[in-house]
Amino acid sequence: MNEQLPEIERMGQQAADCRGCDLALKRTQVVWGDGPATARVVFIGEAPGRKEDEGGHPFIGPAGHLLDELLERAHITRADVYITNIVKCRPPGNRDPRDEEILACRGYLNAQLRLLRPRAIVTLGAFATRLILQTGAGISSVQGRVFERHGYKVLPLYHPAATIYDLLKKEPFFAAAPLLDELVNGGEACDARDDAS
Ligand code: URA
Questions:
Q1: Which positions ≥6 away from 111 have C-beta within 8 Å?
Q2: What's the CA-to-centroid distance between 62 and ligand 1, angstroms?
Q3: Residue pLDDT, tens place only, 117-129
Q4: pTM surpassing 0.85?
Q5: Residue 120, strand partner residues
Q6: pLDDT digits over 93-117, tens only?
Q7: N or C, which end of the chain is more exposed by having fewer CB within 10 Å?
Q8: pLDDT of residue 5
């Protein structure tokens, strides 16, 4: 094991053999996460899809192209942020992740956040938003607003894949670009404004 690797990468290597839930039986590989250990902002999606399962990196399929477009509009590159998912292995057929799978993976996400200590978290879609905000509020009522949770600013957004099928979600998804720009590139001016509980 390479001693020069940041702790978060070493942890990812250890998680590569994870057998914490049944997703291990069908996955090609664990998709741990990508980005610098110094990232100010962490994006959290739902679970790897087919492309991610094959390639080993988060958001490299069609949803990833939309995420890249959002980043570009916010004057951000992937090298500026950390990207991961609440569930690190692909659910067969891209079905929704089950509660027990989310729970089995939760320790990994907690450890990633503890090591990264980001300024802000961007949750992509209803599953990541529910987990991080601990709210029963629907994604449409919180998308694009900044919340404060456990010392993090949290910006919930629609899942990029949802904007492919529901064009009404596309405009509000991309409208978050200036806020994102401020969270990543701005000073401390972007104060939390809302409470979803
Ligand atoms: N959808 C997600 O939620 N995460 C990925 O990594 C890819 C698609």
A1: 11
A2: 9
A3: 999 999 999 999 9
A4: yes
A5: 41, 153
A6: 999 999 999 999 999 999 999 999 9
A7: N
A8: 76
Residue 59 Cα, ligand 1 centroid: separation in angstroms?
5
| CB distance 127 to ligand 1 below 6 Å | no
- The secondary element (H helix, E strand) that includes residue 175 is helix 170-175
Give the pLDDT mean for 24-40: 97
Instruction: Copy the structure tokens of residue 142.
Output: 């919180």
Instruction: Check if 12 has its Cβ closer than 6 Å to any atom of ligand 1.
Output: no
pLDDT at 155: 97
Is the CB of residue 172 less than 8 Å from the CB of residue 144? yes
- Locate the ligand 1 atom nearest the alpha carbon of residue 46 and give its number: 3
Q: Pick from 28, 43, 52, 157 the residue to mutate for probing ligand 1's pocket: most ligand atoms within 8 Å of its CB.
A: 52
3-state SS of 22-82?
CHHHHCCCCCCCECCCCCCEEEEECCCCHHHHHHCCCCCCHHHHHHHHHHHHCCCCHHHEE
Would the pLDDT of 174 be above 80?
Answer: yes
Number of H helices, E strands in the chain: 10, 5
Atom from ligand 1 closest to the CA of residue 58: 6
